[in-house]
Design a protein that fits this description.
Largest sheet of chain B: 7 strands, mixed
Distance between the termini of chain A: 36 Å
Low-confidence stretches of chain B: none
Shape of chain B: globular
Structural class of chain B: mainly beta
Mean pLDDT of chain A: 96
Number of helices of chain A: 0
Structural class of chain A: mainly beta
Low-confidence stretches of chain A: none
Shape of chain A: globular
Radius of gyration of chain A: 13 Å
Number of helices of chain B: 0
Order of helices and strands of chain A: EEEEEEEEEEE
Oligomer: heterodimer
């Protein structure tokens, strides 16, 4: 069973860019059956999907965040990435990376990383 | 954009109760719906996919039903480990965009 691990700064200044990495171990990001995505959860609130990427580089974004978000993949490193620019305090959240199994839902999640904008 | 509405937002129950959570989509999503369980400080866990298919390793007391715009998650006999927050999530089969419901907290 693959494992996902998020990494990146825990503190980002307002107006700057949040950058996170998700590293996949025990499996390949190049599998044709999966998308790879980012989801966030502000403290005490619900889940918000941010974006998905396919190993080929195809990307899909939440329309409400699309203007500020870039998701990308590096198959040679078995990693995918999130960049969120012009952050504000409302971007403070736990950020999860996850694997989406075709049309079957998000079946593997990272443990999450807390990012504070301050 | 498709909106997902869960009800209730909070549910008080006891061990052994049969619990039902409802999720409504703003437009038809066929059966492209998943259910997750989340405990405090933990990542969500996939319970049900394609509205009614039980994820491997998930106890059979969990079941899902529905299609189109109305879906339900049922816990047949609530166990102590089931006190958690539950989320529905739709996925668009034509382009993999996702939307979560607002969540239902099942508490004692």
């Amino acid at each position: 069973q693959p494992q996902l691990q998020e990494s990146g700064p825990g503190l980002v200044k307002p107006s700057e860019t949040l950058s996170l990495t998700c590293t996949i171990s025990g499996g390949s990001i190049s599998s044709r059956n999966y998308y790879w995505g980012w989801i966030r959860q502000p403290p005490g609130k619900g889940l918000e999907w941010i974006a998905n990427v396919y190993y080929s580089g195809s990307t899909f974004y939440n329309p409400s965040l699309k203007s500020r978000v870039t998701i990308s993949v590096d198959t040679s490193k078995n990693q995918f990435y999130l960049m969120l620019n012009s952050v504000t305090a409302s971007d403070t959240a736990v950020y999860y990376c996850a694997r989406q199994r075709a049309s079957d839902g998000l079946d593997i999640w990272g443990q999450g990383t807390m990012v504070t904008v301050s | 954009d498709i909106q997902m509405t869960q009800s209730p937002s909070t549910l008080s129950a006891s061990v052994g109760d049969r619990v039902t959570i409802t999720c409504r989509a703003s437009q038809s999503i066929s059966s492209w719906l998943a259910w997750y369980q989340q405990k405090p400080g933990k990542a969500p866990k996939l319970l049900i996919y394609r509205a009614s298919r039980l994820e491997s390793g998930v106890p059979s007391r969990f079941s899902g039903s529905g299609s189109g715009t109305e879906f339900t998650l049922t816990i047949g006999s609530l166990q102590p480990d089931d006190f958690a927050t539950y989320y529905c999530q739709q996925y668009n089969s034509y382009s993999p965009t996702l939307t979560f419901g607002g969540g239902t907290k099942v508490e004692f």
